[in-house]
């Protein structure tokens, strides 16, 4: 359990409290239908927003 806690802190708490399932589903849908760079930018934006909201 210590490992999960450490990983969670390293990921900015993302592993311990992930975004809603709908957000992940949307990212998967977007990734399957758009350019990889668009998917990467949207994923980074989501992670940044989620991290800022949690902190």
Q: Would you kindly provide a brief summary of this structure?
A:
With 55 residues, the protein is mainly alpha-helical.
Supply Rg: 13 Å
Helix residue percentage:
over 70%
> What share of residues are in beta strands?
under 5%
Count of helical segments? 3
- Sheet bearing the most strands, described? none
The end-to-end distance, rounded to whole angstroms, is 22 Å
Shape, principal axes of CA atoms: elongated
Residue stretches low in confidence (pLDDT < 50, at least 5 long) are: none
How many β strands by DSSP?
0
Order of helices and strands: HHH
Description:
With about 55 residues, this protein is mainly α. The protein has a domain at about 20-55. The chain has three helices and no strands. It has helices at about 1-10, 20-35, 35-55. Helix 2 packs antiparallel against helix 3 (about 35-55). The longest helix has 19 residues, at about 35-55. The protein is elongated. The relative contact order is 0.16. The mean pLDDT is about 75.
Keywords:
mainly alpha; 75% helix; elongated; single chain; 55 residues
Write the layout of secondary structure elements.
Blueprint: H1 2-10, H2 21-33, H3 36-54
